[in-house]
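Side project, low priority. Logging it here so it doesn't get lost.
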Amino acid sequence: MVKEISLADVRGLIGTETGLSDWILVDQTMIDAFAHATDDHQFIHVDPERAAQSPFGGTIAHGFLTLSLLSTMNYNCLPKVREQTMGINYGFDTVRFVAPVKSGARIRGHFILADARFRGAGMLMTTYDLTIEIENERKPALTAKWITIVQFDPKDRPDDV
């Protein structure tokens, strides 16, 4: 169960693992749907017979599909900020696709809160160091530094920050 925290508690979590998501199955149906949505039909993603002859030995998920699953992982495991009115994806400082996610593999996200800074009267910018691991694999699928913004009513800003 994902817990709820207050704005005043967020900065105390810097440097800690704040979330470990549930496993997500990345199957061929998901890969094919992503290929259709993005118009990226490269054979290593959508042609199991041809991909079997590649160095990957079968189809693999698009790197951007793996990256896009961070939203689901976030909602699944990160503490909810009680005063939040909206969350905004601000971007990434780094993203590295370390290992391919083969069709049928399960992945999950590890989130470490690296930084949290108040910006303006009603925004908290958070930075997560994260890793998406592949079940039973030594190397992760990806590593990234993800920046998000927690928006809140300025009257809810803690006095001691």
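Brief comment: Residues 4-25+69-156 form a domain with the Thiol Ester Dehydrase; Chain A fold (CATH 3.10.129.10).
Revisit when time allows.
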